[in-house]
Amino acid sequence: MKRTFSKIISIFILASLMMSLFVSYTYASSTDLTPSISILKSKDVVWPSFSGDLHSQNAILIDANSHCLLYDKGADQKIYPASITKILTALVVMEYVSSLDDIFVFSASSITQDIDRDSTTIGAIYGDRLTIKEGLYCLLLASANDVANALAEHIAGNNKDFALLMNNLAKKIGCTNSNFTNPTGMHDENHYTTCSDLAKIVSYALQYELFTQITSAISYRHAPIRKYKDPENSNNVVYNSDKMLATTNPYYIKGIISGKTGHTSVAGYNLSTVVRQNNTTLIAITCGAAKINQRYADTKQMLTWAFRNFKSLQINTADPRFAKNVGNLSIDGIDVITPQIINVDSNKYITLPRDVYFEDLTSTLTFSEIDENDPYSVGMAKYYYKDILVGSASIRGTKTLDINSIDISNIPTRQKDTDEIGRKLSVVPKDYLIKYEGGQFIVNPQFIKYLIVFAVTLIVLFIILFNIGNRNKRYR
């Protein structure tokens, strides 16, 4: 009997250990995949603050996908963009031209207007011809003013009318403190913008693959012009004026996908830079540096700081309400929309400090506001960390979505003056076994299942052991 009892105890201990391992593995798997809110202390995380000392008089750093502002120095102050203007010039050309293979011709005025001794050109003369694509490379890499004028005349007939197109597009993009008078960026008191508006222009330009293809290139060979008739003549090769793209440059930074320089004696040294690392794309604009290398040093300093301190999350995978891509959208378990296929733009992101998690955000969902540029938009989702807007996205519905079916009565309003800003986002339930919340213990239903399995296992083992014991007695 003692031997039988010892066996029972041994089996009980063994079963307990196996069950403990099973439970521990289940819990560990759960928390590894989805960090528990109770463990996180991100409410104590202070938004990272850039403490560097920039030479540039004005600067801005934003996340291109979330449009979250990470740093600015006089970003809304009036500045002269110089040749960064040519990014907008290129955008107007790409939006109005019928084909990149179209031919444009250099007129007498295009090679003389706003072109002085210090102007950058490709050396075109009256009657030279290039394709639009070749012109865009010359415009954005070599910052060629003769090409800027010729492209403007091809699109609008003259620089004045082309400037109207520039301002119309700038307004469409969302620029509020800009005015452009020429396609080159040559100094004019009435040709001005801000770092904030330039960041918007660059962000808009990123939708064109051709833009990053050009502005990330080191060099490009265009068709020969009459001054350099030999196709192999090195003068028919244009080089990117942004030295930061060269891997041998001390200011090089990994992941640069776009660079554009600008300089006049009044504007100082300006620089537009776009860098992509993993799923984070940052836009850095620096303006008004006194020396050429200061713009590079400032840009690298800002970008290095940002990549060390921030991360990006894709909204349609981070937010479980959209990640499932299923019909019912709910907040705190309350359905706010009838069954439909809903999602958000896969290119929309949230920018967070490294030590902050998605579960620590609050959101507002507004169905009275839609994205006018998205034909499937039925509302907007905005995400906040404390008082900071860290991202937003258009909520999309299928073509059959019935707007009248949307009930917004249960959608939370964000309260800025409280510690708990709005309601917590609905999150995927954690596979906890037992947790303590609100002054009481909450048992996960799965835990009951584990106990039942454990009890049944013990009973089966006991029956088997009991039968073995009886069998041994018979043979004694």
Task: Explain the layout of strands and helices.
Layout: H1 2-33, E1 58-63, E2 69-73, H2 85-96, E3 103-105, E4 129-131, H3 132-141, H4 145-156, H5 159-173, H6 195-205, H7 209-215, E5 219-221, E6 237-239, E7 256-264, E8 268-277, E9 280-289, H8 292-309, E10 310-314, H9 315-318, H10 320-323, E11 330-331, E12 334-335, E13 342-344, E14 349-353, E15 362-366, E16 377-385, E17 388-397, E18 434-437, E19 440-443, H11 445-474
Verbal overview:
The protein has 11 helices and 19 strands. With 476 residues, the protein is α+β, with helices and mostly antiparallel strands. The protein folds into 3 domains: 2-34 and 444-474; 58-289, Beta-lactamase (3-Layer(aba) Sandwich); 314-405, Sandwich (Peptidoglycan synthesis regulatory factor (PBP3), Domain 2), CATH 2.60.410. A hairpin with a 2-residue loop joins strand 11 (330-331) and strand 12 (334-335). Helix 2 (85-96) packs antiparallel against helix 3, helix 2 crosses helix 5 and helix 3 (132-141) crosses helix 4 (145-156). The longest helix is centred in the N-terminal third of the chain and has 32 residues, at 2-33. The chain is elongated and about 115 Å long. Residues 21-42 and 399-431 have low confidence and may be disordered.
Keywords for this structure?
3 domains, 33% helix, Peptidoglycan synthesis regulatory factor (PBP3), Domain 2, 19 strands, four-stranded antiparallel β-sheet, alpha+beta, 476 residues, five-stranded antiparallel β-sheet, elongated, 21% strand
